[in-house]
Inverse folding.
């Protein structure tokens, strides 16, 4: 569905994303993890067209879409959520979702009906109230609903679980799985490992702009390079020693 | 149409009907000493309606789309001059000149929009650029022969329906009201359309809108073109009413200010905001002028501007969503 080929992004002297290649198979939930500042969100902005890469290509369903604008990518079927939620604060919850729904439902009645259906799917209730009155968990669901309402084939989720408490996370995991089961491919950035372990078939690990590991969640978390990326050099060895002694 | 659809348009019908019935109250108002005569009443009402129309134009780009123009005079003036020059220099019929004036205003809007939006100007930068364009137009109109230069252009007085000049003052009142009514309906249609939803999304958050597939440049361009065309009609009506334009009337900052103050005071990004704001601003301004005149025996120039300033401060402090927001809050809705 999505293939990223040797993608790089430089901001002046800083290389935020360096030579990253990865694929997201159709119908999968693929995870993207890494320590803070690894370049995960930058990679998302490159894939979703908000920034153009310095080098490399982005292929969507076999088509080269490098450098396309976000709006044309949305038309093609790539939708994203924002890590820092961006609700249309002056609108109601339903109107927010309807903006997304209008992309493939030009008529008002159609769009509203579709928006309501999507809102229900992600568990949003009380659609008539202003989006600004939503809790953090509600806003995350709204981000998800809006993106989903555009009818994407590929959904890029940027930390939709961050800031949620454990019970809210438990509630939303089945929602994400149901979205995948309805035929939407998902690439998600996530720090909540509980979710990554239970949702993702394949995980890519980014550190300092480079891809350092890939595999199933279980493989990746036991990879010494990954452990060191999070905990510092030598940490993997110390952990192993600790485990041997314990 | 479902009942829900009809209900959305009912307030417009009521408001327009109420305005249309106002002439019935003229003898009463004049009798009570509120107006010196029927003509005074009609002149005020027509002026309010023309400002409403200019403000309705501003409200589309500024209110719904969040693109705060400080230079709608550029569009008002283009409409006003086109209406005058087409008649006096090219012998075009007044009714035929009106759509041309509207189209020219829209064209100016599209060009200014293209230049400003492609350069990604937002907020105060956009406001400043539009102000600059209006000023350039004002200076050019003051200097070029085709507009009559500093002397302005006088449209000859020839009463007759064909010339869009009416003997009965009520006729022009109804003409202006008809335009305002059409734009009221247009606004409601816009609010309930995909374009309207996208326009508001652009105002609220451009990045989020783009992520949802909204071509923000195209939406903003369409909005400023429509906005400019409507304000240009207000300018053309002004020419037909007062039969004279010069650069300071047509492209002066006064009309830019009126066009943006009325929606802000009335309720920004709402169907009725421009109308309510124009009635409040101009009505209170006139009342203040009359009261000062009665109290001191002579006119105090600029007292209406003091009222504008005071009203703006009061509205921003106590009713950030405008007078209409106040009405809705009071109505418990």
């Amino acid at each position: 569905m999505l293939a990223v080929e040797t993608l790089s992004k430089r901001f002046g002297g800083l290389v935020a994303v360096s030579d990253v290649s990865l694929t997201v198979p159709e119908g999968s939930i693929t995870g993207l993890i890494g320590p803070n500042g690894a370049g995960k969100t930058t990679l998302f902005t490159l894939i979703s067209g908000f920034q153009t890469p310095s080098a490399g290509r982005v292929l969507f369903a076999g088509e080269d879409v490098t450098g396309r604008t976000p709006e044309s990518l949305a038309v093609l079927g790539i939708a994203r959520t924002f890590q820092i939620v961006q609700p249309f604060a002056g609108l109601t919850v339903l109107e927010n979702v309807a903006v997304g729904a209008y992309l493939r439902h030009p008529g008002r009645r159609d769009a509203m009906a579709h928006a309501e259906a999507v809102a229900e799917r992600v568990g949003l209730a009380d659609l008539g109230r202003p989006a600004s009155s939503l809790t953090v968990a509600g806003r995350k669901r709204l981000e998800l609903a809006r993106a989903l309402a555009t009818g994407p084939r590929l959904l890029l989720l940027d930390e939709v679980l961050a800031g949620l408490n454990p019970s809210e996370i438990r509630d939303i995991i089945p929602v994400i799985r149901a979205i995948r089961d309805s035929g939407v491919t998902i690439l998600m950035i996530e720090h909540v490992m509980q979710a990554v372990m239970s949702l993702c078939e394949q995980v890519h690990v980014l550190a300092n702009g480079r891809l350092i590991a890939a595999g199933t969640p279980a493989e990746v978390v036991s990879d010494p390079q990954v452990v060191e990326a999070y905990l510092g050099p030598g940490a993997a060895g110390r952990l192993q020693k600790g485990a041997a002694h314990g | 149409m479902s009942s829900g659809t009809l209900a959305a348009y009912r307030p417009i019908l009521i408001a327009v009907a109420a305005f249309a019935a106002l002439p019935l109250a003229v003898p009463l108002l004049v009798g009570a000493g509120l107006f010196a005569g029927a003509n005074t009443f009609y002149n005020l009402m027509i002026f309010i309606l023309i400002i409403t129309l200019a403000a309705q134009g501003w409200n589309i780009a500024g209110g719904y789309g969040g693109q705060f123009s400080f230079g709608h005079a550029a569009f008002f003036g283009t409409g006003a001059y086109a209406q005058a020059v087409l008649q006096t220099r090219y012998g075009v019929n007044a009714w035929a000149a009106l759509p041309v004036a509207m189209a020219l205003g829209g064209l100016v809007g599209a060009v200014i929009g293209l230049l400003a939006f492609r350069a990604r100007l937002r907020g105060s930068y956009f406001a400043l650029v539009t102000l600059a364009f209006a000023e350039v137009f004002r200076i050019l109109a003051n200097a070029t022969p085709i507009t009559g230069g500093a002397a302005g252009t006088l449209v000859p007085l020839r009463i007759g329906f064909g010339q869009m000049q009416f003997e009965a003052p009520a006729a022009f009142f109804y003409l202006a009201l008809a335009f305002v009514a059409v734009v009221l309906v247009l606004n409601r249609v816009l609010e309930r359309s995909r374009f309207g939803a996208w326009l508001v999304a652009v105002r609220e958050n451009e990045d989020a809108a783009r992520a949802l597939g909204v071509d923000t440049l195209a939406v903003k361009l369409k909005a400023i073109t429509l906005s400019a065309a409507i304000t240009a009609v207000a300018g053309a009506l002004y020419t037909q009413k007062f039969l004279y334009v010069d650069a300071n009337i047509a492209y002066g900052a006064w009309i830019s200010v009126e066009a943006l103050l009325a929606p802000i005071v009335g309720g920004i990004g709402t169907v009725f905001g421009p109308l309510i704001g124009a009635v409040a601003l101009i009505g209170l301004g006139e009342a203040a002028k009359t009261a000062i005149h009665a109290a001191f025996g002579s006119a105090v120039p600029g007292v209406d501007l003091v009222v504008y300033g005071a009203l703006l401060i009061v509205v921003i402090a106590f009713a950030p969503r405008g007078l209409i927001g106040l009405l809705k809050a009071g109505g418990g809705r």
Remarks:
- The beta strands of chain A are 2-11, 14-24, 29-33, 55-60, 63-64, 78-80, 154-158, 185-189, 202-207, 210-215.
- The longest helix of chain A spans residues 166-181.
- The CA atoms of residues 140 and 226 of chain A lie 28 Å apart.
